Amino acid sequence: MSTEPESYGAEAIQVLEGLEAVRKRPGMYIGSTGPAGLHHMVYEVVDNSVDEAMAGHATTIHVTLLADGGCEVRDDGRGIPVEQSIQYPELSAAEVVLTVLHAGGKFGGGGYKVSGGLHGVGISVVNALSTRVEVEIDRDGRRHAMAFADGGGIVESLHDIGEAPVGPDGVSRTGTTVRFWPDPTIFDEVSFRATTLLERLQMMAFLNAGLHIVFTDQRQDSPPVEFRYEGGIRDFVRHVNATKESLFSDVGYFSASEDRDDGSMEVEVAFQWNTGYHSDGLHSFANGINTIEGGMHEEGFKKALTNTVNRYAREHQLLKDKDENLQGEDIREGLTAIVSVRLTDPQFEGQTKAKLGNVPVRSLAERATNEKLAEWLEEHPSEAKRILQKATQAARAREAARNARDATRRKSALDGAGLPGKLADCSSKDPRASELYIVEGNSAGGSAKDARNSETMAILPIRGKILNVERARLERMLANTEIQALVSAIGGGVGDDFSAEKIRYHKVIIMCDADVDGSHIRTLLLTFFFRQMRPLVEHGHVFIAQPPLYSTEVGRNKVYLKDDAAKAAFLDAHPNHKNEFQRLKGLGEMDATELWETTMDPVSRTLLQISVEQAAIADEVFSILMGDDVESRKTFIQTNAQDVRFLDI
Ligand code: 0RA
User: Fold this and answer.
1) 648 in ligand 1 pocket by Cβ < 6 Å?
2) Which of 4, 143, 336, 644 could potentially form a cystine with 281 if both were Cys, beta carbons 3.0 to 4.6 Å apart?
């Protein structure tokens, strides 16, 4: 085959036009061109390998961040087919997969029943949004290679480069390796964040029992991180509950599937209760995607859970005739459960496209739970008894909580009547012009007060760790003075009562240090806003202040540089620059002038606007992967804290 890029036929031109459409509207294909979109590129490629593994043909996926900024995904599957394409005779099948939109596993006899992919867009989209893509395919004893450049143009047609490596068993290796370099003219940032990828890869390993994922970051010399969970979602539940006190040691599990004319579906559920008080430990997934807004699978499971537990309780006289049925939230208190479904054509709906809409999944989940959970309860009488004791206590606590909440609501502090003492309010009464800076620590709060423009900027210092909202029940949370100050300063109420019309500031800016504690507080605040003031996030009123990482002197002026990329760009532009770069101190150590210049001056500051999706991710990641254990969370952040810019976003 030719390796020359010339002599495009009509089809090749058509193909390039398809990829051009992706470059024109990247957001339509990968959601955004921010960090989330950048990381979707990796998931898109990995999802193809996961599909190959789920079809029973691959066991191991290596994800490697290359020192030069590229990303390599390697699997030991069958290898993308290399023969001539039937539909596009001038291209090989592999070239079609890389250049034609939605050409994933749809051709040949080997197509997949169910396929992952957040947007299910295929590797061609990754190609369209990369400056270079290299693919190697080991198949039929040969190694084949091809390469693309500048958004999908073929620079090396598929060609044979020799024998495929032979393993110790004497069998030729098969598999696919894809390397890509995201296009910096498309993405705001092209540096991957290891933590973000690790979280997702770990989740994938939990959701695909037995799948072996190896992650290596060659940009630094850290050892590879490996995930493999033979127990799948049972191990996931065990992992979430590891930092909690479980109510019993067994992790329940059941699954069911159904084949229909319009495709197949399967549901898997794992569950265990802990002694905690959340009733939001239910996490659901559809084709490996975290459905944080729930949907049909969750509905079916929840309904049947409530039914089945109540039915069991009545049949075993654990509820008396005169007792009311236990409510769903009582039964779910302390429950950690994973509901994972796979289906042919998932419909993602809702605000963040994270709600499963396929109606038939509801009845499958419901029937499976009604039948198999009932069996599990019969087989586990002592566990069943504990679950019922806990649910009964929760029902009583719910009553008490309602009374406490009513009392709290009557308190004037929460109606915005009195403003908190430590709030340095701004003089403007126009919410559109007003900004609230939530500042970690009193000393930073002091500098911020000195530095601010008092007409438009209000300062609210938050001391130490605010209450861990993840762990607390609502009434306890509202009793916390830091939370009360926050609620009354913002002025829109809280929880179901929250109204974005009443808020006193249109910008609520979280200003924390770029260290572990700062990141902790930032995540807590985002979790709080996401759960208790969601419209504030939805309307785009929540921001994160991003102090620069470096400063340096140019003549008599100080120049601030946002991050390593900005520093590199500065050095490119000033090759003779000899002055040193200072790494900037924590917020508390800056004086007012410095704080103003780096972080608060509207002309030069960098504010990151938080989307519902980001807040939801902060919330979800926080509660799923970290549980209640602050220590393990700290360790996790510390080992991944190289890139402080993206911390927790
Ligand atoms: C289409 C058909 C077949 C495999 C694949 C695609 C495939 C794609 C990717 C992408 C990354 N790794 C992959 N592994 C496989 C079936 C091939 C056959 O029938 O042998």
Assistant:
1) no
2) 336
Identify whether residues 260 and 337 lie together within a single domain: yes
Are 94 and 115 in contact by the 8 Å Cβ rule? The answer is: no
Residue 28: per-residue pLDDT: 87
CA angle (229 as vertex; 224, 232 as ends), nearest 5:
140
CA 561 – ligand 1 centroid, Å: 44
Can you read off the two tokens belonging to residue 268?
């898997």
Establish whether residue 115 lines the binding site of ligand 1, counting it when its CB lies within 6 angstroms of any ligand atom: no
Overall residue count recorded for the chain in this entry: 649
Contact between 285 and 341 (Cβ < 8 Å): yes
Query: Distance between alpha carbon 183 and the CA centroid of its chain, in Å?
Result: 22
- pTM of the predicted protein model: 0.70
Which amino acid makes up residue 136? E
Please give the Cα distance from 191 to 181 (Å, whole number): 10
Per the CB < 8 A criterion, the answer to whether 561 and 551 are in contact is yes
Region of residue 7 (phi > 0: left; psi between -120 and 50: alpha; otherwise: beta): left
Of 211, 227, 243, which one is at a domain's C-terminal end? 227
Residue-number span of the structural domain to which 42 is assigned: 20-227
Q: What is the pLDDT of residue 414?
A: 46
CA–CA dist 224, 214 (Å, integer): 6
75 lines ligand 1 (CB under 6 A): yes
